[in-house]
């Protein structure tokens, strides 16, 4: 078991920054304004070769009334009681304040090792504050800079010396817990529900809206199964989120949904399934997580039976992609109906993790296509071949079919709904991918198509148009025209002699076709069809 270390101090001294530094992740929200952290947060960290369980706490306020600050102080004191070692942090730039002295008097009554940290000691201005820290009575302060990582070696030596006499019990590594995120709008009762489930005031609650800012994880064991409940900040409509801190809280909530396995969406019974609730449920479905609906504050409902039937009808009507999700109506204030929540959560988790045999899937595919055959697109029918499940969480199926890219979306929805009903996968997101199988390897772009060869510029103009353009550029002189055609690559035409008799050509034994000479133009031909080959200027007689 790791050493439990609580980081305490007055507001805005850098506790969450050191917490993130030792954890190695940006788990806690960090902002310049004081009072960002309200609940205590647990996380596993390390310094040197030592494993730690770090506890980030809210800034200590010297109030004992019923205000929010007083409840935050109770959370800090609970962290002090739970820790084995305490890191008391002060701001070296501002020096020792009156609130630091009041908190130091409170810590002296705790019989646990305490290490004094002088944070923000990276500048020369912090020298006076480090000197003042000696007056708090906790020995030599350790100057560090949590933001820049300075002084971590000195902190490791101090933790190693302070924990020498602390007995750390060896505990077997527990099995992986089921991660359950609790989401909803502000002031829906998420933190109150978690406190009711675990039977302890672990999370800060109250009538104020937006108390929770960080996503706080709480480990719990229910009937022998390890559970990790994650409390999240309330999510308002995106148009209303303007402040930087609220944007960070919303981003932290979305991250909690991404890493969860089951999501509990808490809604107010009076305005359940409004626009924001529908958007949250759609986000859960797109992330592929199992979903459980919870209608809170059910002790104030006058007609519970009719209202519950109406809410279930709204869930199936407005969220058909999550049809059949478990619905639990309860009251976190008096515990009415809370005992039905965890069985519904585990049922949704088991459905989300289901695996279907390939044989059963293909038997179902044959029946489903016979009952409702695929439509014909462009006169050609789509033929499903076989289907198999590739993974669970959420259930994902791959179906091979001809012309898969042409399959309409409405037929895919029919197949998904049929899978949900046939294999009892109510309420869980289902993924169906339709593929066409292996493509032709010799087609263009295939594995064996080879590199594409350059075929030159395409000739889009008609051939006779090109010849007409070339003919216009030729000279009128016969000899000059032949030279131009030879350079252009145009072969000389060979025309039959018009007006020649076939008998005359056969008797003479000569060809009935002639070609133009290279220089003198056309040769002279007698009436009998013979070519005159006499001297220049005329034929011999």
Automatic annotation (TrEMBL):
Residues 450-462 have a biased composition (Basic and acidic residues). Residues 497-510 have a biased composition (Low complexity). The keyword Cytoplasm does not apply. InterPro entries: G_ENGA, GTP-bd, GTPase_Der, KH_dom-like, KH_dom-like_a/b, P-loop_NTPase, Small_GTP-bd. Associates with the 50S ribosomal subunit. Belongs to the TRAFAC class TrmE-Era-EngA-EngB-Septin-like GTPase superfamily. EngA (Der) GTPase family. HAMAP family: GTPase_Der (MF_00195). GTPase that plays an essential role in the late steps of ribosome biogenesis. This is GTPase Der.
């Amino acid at each position: 078991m790791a050493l439990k270390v609580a980081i305490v101090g007055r507001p805005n001294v850098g506790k969450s920054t050191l917490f993130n530094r030792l954890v190695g992740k940006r788990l806690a929200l960090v902002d310049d304004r004081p009072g960002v952290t309200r609940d205590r947060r647990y996380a596993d960290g390390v310094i040197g070769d030592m494993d730690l369980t770090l506890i980030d706490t809210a800034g200590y306020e010297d109030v004992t009334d019923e205000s929010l600050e007083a409840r935050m102080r109770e959370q800090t004191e609970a962290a002090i009681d739970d820790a084995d070692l305490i890191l008391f942090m002060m701001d070296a730039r501002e020096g020792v304040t009156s609130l630091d002295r009041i908190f130091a008097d409170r810590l002296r009554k705790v019989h646990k090792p305490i290490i004094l940290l002088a944070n923000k000691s990276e500048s020369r201005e912090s020298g006076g504050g480090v000197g003042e820290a000696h007056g708090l009575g906790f020995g030599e302060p350790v100057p560090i800079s949590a933001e820049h990582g300075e002084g971590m070696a000195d902190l490791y030596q101090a933790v190693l010396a302070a924990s020498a006499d602390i007995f750390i019990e060896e505990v077997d590594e527990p099995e992986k817990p089921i991660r359950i995120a609790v989401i909803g709008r502000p002031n829906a009762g998420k933190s109150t529900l978690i406190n009711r489930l675990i039977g302890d005031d672990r999370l800060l609650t109250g009538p104020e809206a937006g108390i929770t800012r960080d996503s706080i994880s709480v480990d719990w064991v229910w009937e022998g199964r390890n559970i990790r409940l994650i409390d999240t900040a309330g999510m308002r409509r995106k148009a209303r989120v303007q402040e930087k801190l609220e944007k960070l809280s919303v981003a932290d909530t979305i991250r909690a949904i991404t890493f969860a396995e089951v999501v509990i969406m808490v809604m107010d019974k009076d305005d359940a399934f409004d626009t924001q609730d529908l958007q949250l449920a759609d986000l859960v479905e797109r992330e592929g997580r199992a979903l459980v609906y919870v209608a809170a504050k059910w002790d104030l409902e006058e007609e519970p039976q009719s209202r519950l039937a109406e809410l279930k009808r709204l869930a199936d009507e407005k969220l058909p992609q999550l049809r059949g999700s478990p619905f639990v109506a309860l009251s976190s204030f008096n515990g009415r109906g809370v005992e039905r929540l965890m069985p519904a959560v585990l049922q949704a988790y088991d459905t989300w993790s289901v695996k279907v045999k390939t044989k059963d899937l293909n038997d179902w595919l044959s029946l489903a296509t016979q009952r409702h055959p695929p439509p014909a697109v462009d006169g050609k029918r789509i033929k499903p071949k076989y289907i198999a499940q590739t993974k669970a969480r959420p259930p994902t199926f791959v179906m091979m079919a001809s012309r898969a890219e042409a399959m309409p979306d409405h037929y895919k929805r029919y197949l998904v709904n049929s899978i949900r009903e046939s294999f009892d996968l109510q309420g869980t997101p289902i993924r169906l991918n339709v593929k066409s199988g292996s493509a032709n390897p010799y087609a263009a772009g295939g594995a064996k198509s080879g590199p594409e060869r350059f075929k030159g510029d395409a000739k889009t103009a008609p051939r006779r148009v090109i010849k007409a353009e070339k003919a216009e550029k030729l000279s009128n002189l016969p000899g000059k025209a032949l030279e131009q055609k030879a350079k252009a690559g145009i072969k000389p035409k060979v025309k039959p002699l018009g007006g020649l008799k076939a008998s005359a050509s056969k008797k003479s034994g000569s060809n009935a076709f002639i070609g133009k000479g290279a220089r003198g133009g056309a040769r002279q031909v007698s009436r009998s069809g013979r070519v005159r080959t006499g001297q220049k200027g005329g034929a011999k007689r």
